[in-house]
Amino acid sequence: MKRSRTRWFFLAPSIFFLWAVGNLDKVGISVIVTNDNFLQSMELNGKSTEIGLLMTGFTVLYGLSSAFWGYIVDRIGPRLTAIIGLIIWTVSLIMGGLAGSYGSLIASRVILGLGEGIMFPMTNKFIAQWFHPKELGKAQSTWVYGQYLGPALGIPMLVWLISISSWEVSFFALAGFSLFINLPLVIFLTRDTPAQHYAVNSLELEYIESGKTAKSKEVQLKSNFLKDKRYWLVCLAFLMITVLFYGISFWMPTYLEKARGFSPSEMGSLTSLSWLMAIIAVFTCGIIIDKTRRPALIGSIIFVICGFSILTTSLISNALVAAIMLGLALACVASQLLVSQLLIVKYSNPRDTGKAAGIMGVLNIVGGFVTTIMGYIVDSTGGNYNIALLFLVLFPFIGALSYAGLFRNEKQDIATTALTGTASLK
Asked: What's the pLDDT tens digit per position in 2-32?
């Protein structure tokens, strides 16, 4: 009898599509705010600060509810948590399409944040329960691929859909994806644990369970992750990631059109290219991490590259090169998301993974406020988007320093693993 691969053929695709559609729901607003009819309907012309608040409103509840969902997912399981979250965010998208004022649109974004707050705790709980430590890089890559492939394919679709219909229709289309793709996948393909799944055979279950024993030997876990300085160093790095992710992803379409003079179709293509670059970065990063077992070191290097990419984007005069460098910065952030979530799973017990990821998810609030701050900078400087981008330059280097605090632990973990392996051979 061969070992089944249910974790890859059933669970991983479900998580992939959750993030693909969920992230498109999240960042799709960045394309909608470039539409003139939308700006007129919401009376937002020339109001960059208010436009930035559309993402801030989302992230406030996204971050706060993430901690709440972290405790819920540890109690009721990731599957039921996902179902509840999907229902909430489907309703919120329908509300967005029906919004007749800026206030009602903000309300729909807040409710979307509440529903999507499940994502980090739910995903990390699934991965902690279903995958062997040796597979963490690939397992985390699976959903991060979805997070970036969703916008890569979906943003050009939204640009086209808005051009042939209206901005309202784009909200209804996004709601349909959640209702008719994600919800059935979660209901029929996932279960909370491998032992509960109808397609898992005894060999796969034995392999997954052996991973929990291997993890306890490789990494010395504290009984309370809140007392583990490694956890807080990862949280600091994640804070930098949220600032960079929301600052870049939300303002990129507007930046390409307003600051660099690209047409809507060119903007859609370049934005899509940036998300595709992110997928390549995640794939490459996952392979390197699995080979080196040094996620913090790799993360620090990528943070530095991100910082110089943003600096180049702000200062260079060539529009196309600036667009590519901004895409490279987004790709770096994408791979950092993989690194941070891998480290959270590594440094927390499976029973507490949901809470650990949920508490960390609260930091999304800070990232969301960055979009409003950048909008204010644009307004106060007479429409200078390059100065707004320069605001982001310092954050990658802070992230690199936070990961540097984990280098020593990584070396010790690798040494421990080597000694354990030698002892088992004897």
From this structure: 999 999 999 999 999 999 999 999 989 999 9
* Cβ–Cβ < 8 Å for 388, 378: yes
Nearest 10 degrees: Cα torsion 325, 328, 332, 338: 160
What contacts 24+ positions apart, CB below 8 Å, involve 206-209?
207/3, 207/132, 208/7, 208/130, 208/131, 208/132
Structure tokens at 330: 């987004």
Q: Region 195-216: what's the mean pLDDT?
A: 84
pLDDT of residue 144: 80
Distances (CA, A) of 232 to 52, 217, 370: 28, 22, 21
First-to-final CA distance of the chain:
29
Picking from 362, 369, 243, the residue whose alpha carbon sits closest to that of residue 306 is 243
Q: How far apart are CA 2 and CA 191, in angstroms?
A: 21
Whether the predicted pLDDT of 424 surpasses 50: no
Q: How far apart are CA 124 and CA 422, in angstroms?
A: 31
- CB within 8 Å of 358: residues ≥ 6 apart: 66, 67, 68, 69, 70, 71, 73, 120, 121
Asked whether the predicted pLDDT for residue 382 surpasses 80, the reply is yes
Q: What is the distance, to the nearest Å, from the Cα of residue 116 to the centroid of all Cα atoms in its chain?
A: 11
Residue whose token pair is 């909608």: 32
Length, in residues, of the chain: 426
